[in-house]
Amino acid sequence: MCGIAGFTGRLGSWEESRKVLNKMLTRIRYRGPDEAGVFVDDEVSLGSVRLSIIDISTGHQPLCDDTGRYWITFNGEIFNYRELRRDLEERGCRFSTHSDTEVLLLAFREYGPACLNMLNGQFAFAVWDAKRRSIFLARDRVGIRPLFYTFRHRQLLFASEIKSIFEFPGIERKFDHQALEQVYTFWTTLSPRTVFEDIVELPPGHYLRFEDGHAELNKYWEPPVVGSDGVFRGSIEDAGEALESLLTDAVKLRLRADVPVGSYLSGGLDSSVIATLIRKNSPQDLLQTFSIGFADREFDERSFQNKMVEQLKTRQHRAFCSSDDISEYFPAAVWHSEMPLLRTAPVPMFLLSRLVRENNIKVIMTGEGADEILGGYNIFKEMIIRRFWARYPNSRFRPLLLSRLYPYLSQLKELSPAALKMFFGYRLKDVDSVLYSHLLRWNNTSRIKRMMLPGISGKQNFVDWLEGEWDSILSNAGDLAKAQYIETRIFMSGYLLSSQGDRMAMANSVEGRYPFLDHRVMEFCASLPDNFKLSGLKEKVLLKDRFRNRLPHEVADRAKQAYRAPLANPFLISSKSGYVHDLLSPQTIKSAGVFDDKSVSVLLAKLRNGKAHSETDQMGLVAILSTHLLWKQFIGDFQPVSDNNAIETELRNTVASQPPQKF
Question: What is the number of H-type helices and E-type strands within the chain?
């Protein structure tokens, strides 16, 4: 794992280019604290800060092939690098390291962009071709590893994080207000947009070639979608055997490391299955597991975590999260997320990854992705009930089923049948919409937009726009497949794997690995019929059927409990939230220029009245606080890295003063 950065062209001299590149790397040093390196010549500057996991002794970056033509800087892991290396050796390739970085570089040299379809991994990388004088950027299929870029005067600038790009001279830091609208609707921006003007992300499953001042963006993969009957024709026992085989191989590949690998253990089904497979496939090692506990019992899952620890006999570590912790570390979560947050859930993940690092673990296995590919989320059940209700919209009883889905939302328990109809009835009859499963969620969240200043938001309805964009992709898909595609493309990539995943883990120099997001597992699960995933209102049927007898029944048979953390209360009552008053002051509201001060005052009065708070109102407060934090951190109070504080990188094979090479 690494943080990477670079740009085409040069800034006066190669020494000046190196200084700027060092600052870009310094800003994200936590992504790779073990070593740093740069390559600088007259036409490109590439840099890397490295978290050493594979080939610790010789896997230095940036790395050049044996012809001198190609240079790579790489963030991530190629899990099937050993198999790819054998293939490349048969083609006559010679290796000077044992790293997956060199395998990736030579695979690109041999196959070009087609190599991306051969990779089993999580990655973001850049390759400079000195002969063509072009640079190639690529990102993994589902967006596990981040990569951002922008253009300036026919130059391409890129980095693992936006804050690194802001170290480049002349880059303006401004909010994109329409992108903020997207966050206040979808919880994230719609790729490739970010909340900062002119800074975009390389979308998951895409690559970009930049040559002669022109950029060409191409897609090489996207989540598969099929009909409700799927294409798999075996029994559920056959499917379970196939799923376990694929998952086992995915786990084995992700155990490849020259450092110990730990596992998160939430107490839920997904992480318990992964920990069980790790234990089975590395029985000689004492598996270290890591869990989060909450002071508030509403969010705590320690009893389920303890059941798994007892069964697997792991060395267990636990972090605890209180309201004070939420408010104290929320600014850090926003800084690393580089996006407004509507939830505080990234904070406990920040604390958990810090605990991992404190125990000298660099790599952690997690269960993310299972809910998306195997039908685990309540939003999928909500869709089924709403479609069932829409057949008889005047039914008194059908909407009552919805009250069973969210037992952890106290305000829903108290709703009358009439109020339930009002809450869940938004666009109830629009069952032909390819976005039907998510229309209600997005409508509820988008109420946050009403607090924005009049005139700063655009007139475009992003939900309608998205429906037009995706209609051709999803029109022939099954209802569940549509919902899974939406959840994977937007929420999983833009929020779950980013704000709760890569950003919180790498803030503490920890790499997360996700067996359920092995593309072979994803593609197999997409082929399954719906009733192998959701049967009535029973979620993840296949996974439970396959692993039920190997897990404590309390874990295997428990209802889905969403991972959550306290929302508004930490900022209203915590002793660690002294900064909140400043963030909600009229001066900050005016300076940030996003929200209307009267709307903010009304929301605060509502939240402080001591009554039960709606989820949307609480998310609104979190959105305001995180937006103002983001404004202060990246716009109002941003301080570039000074020359004195910049890291000293090793200048690998600087060729600026050498004659041009001939190819």
Answer: 26, 18
Type and span of the H or E element at 77: strand 70-78
Distance CA 404, CA 538 (A): 12
- Predicted confidence at residue 580, as pLDDT, reads 94
- Strands (E) across 185-306 are located at 200-201, 206-211, 214-219, 261-264, 288-294
Residue in this structure with the two tokens 């490109």, named with its chain if needed: 44
d(CA 483, CA 336): 29
Rounded Cα distance between 305 and 292, Å, is 9
Question: Could you identify the residue written with the tokens 């190639």?
Answer: 136
Answer for the pair 412, 406: CB distance below 8 angstroms, yes or no: yes
Q: Which residues of 503-525 are buried (b: 16+ CB within 10 A; e: fewer)?
A: bbbbbbbbbbbbbbbbbebbebb
The whole-number pLDDT of residue 414 equals 67
Rounded Cα–Cα distance for residues 52 and 258 (Å): 8
Instruction: Supply the pLDDT for residue 611.
Output: 66
**What distance in Å separates the CA atoms of residue 427 and residue 419, rounded to the nearest whole number?**
15
What single DSSP character describes residue 646?
S
Q: Are 535 and 384 in contact (CB under 8 A)?
A: no
Exposed e or buried b for every residue in 218-234, given b needs 16+ CB within 10 A? eeebbbbbbeeebebee
Half-sphere exposure of 574 (CA within 13 A, CB side): 22
Assess contact for 645 and 26: CB atoms under 8 A.
Answer: yes
Q: What pLDDT sits at residue 423?
A: 82
At residue 562, the 3 state secondary structure works out as coil
Q: Mean pLDDT per 10-residue run, the chain (663 residues)?
A: 92 91 96 92 94 76 94 97 97 94 97 98 97 97 98 95 97 96 97 97 98 96 85 95 98 93 94 95 85 85 90 94 95 98 97 96 96 95 94 86 74 72 89 96 94 84 95 93 97 96 96 97 96 93 95 86 87 87 95 96 89 85 98 97 84 47 53
- The region that residue 133 occupies, defined by phi over 0 for left and psi between -120 and 50 for alpha, beta otherwise, is left
| Kind plus residue range of the DSSP H or E element containing 524 | helix 519-526
Edge-first strand listing for the sheet containing 148-152: 200-201, 148-152, 155-159, 2-8, 44-50, 35-40, 650-651
Question: How many other C-beta atoms lie within 10 A of the C-beta of residue 77?
Answer: 28
Q: Which 3 state secondary structure label does DSSP give 333?
A: helix
State the sign of the Cα–Cα–Cα–Cα dihedral 323, 324, 325, 326: positive
Quick one: which of 474, 468, 18 has its CA closest to 224? 474
Alpha carbons 290 and 304: distance in angstroms, whole number: 13
pLDDT at 657: 37
Record the tokens describing residue 196, joined without a space: 């900062």
> CB count, 10 Å around CB of 4?
32
Contact of 5 with 28, CB cutoff 8 Å: yes
Q: Strands of 315-321's sheet, edge to edge? A: 315-321, 288-294, 261-264, 363-365, 511-513
Which tokens sit at 235?
């029994």
Q: Give the tokens for residue 476.
A: 């022939």
Return the pLDDT at 660: 43
- Residue 56 one-letter amino acid: I
Model pLDDT, residue 1: 65
Q: Which residue has the tokens 């779950």?
A: 496
Residue spans of alpha helices (H) in 284-361? 302-312, 323-337, 346-358
Burial of 42 (0-12, 13-18, 19+ CB in 10 A): middle
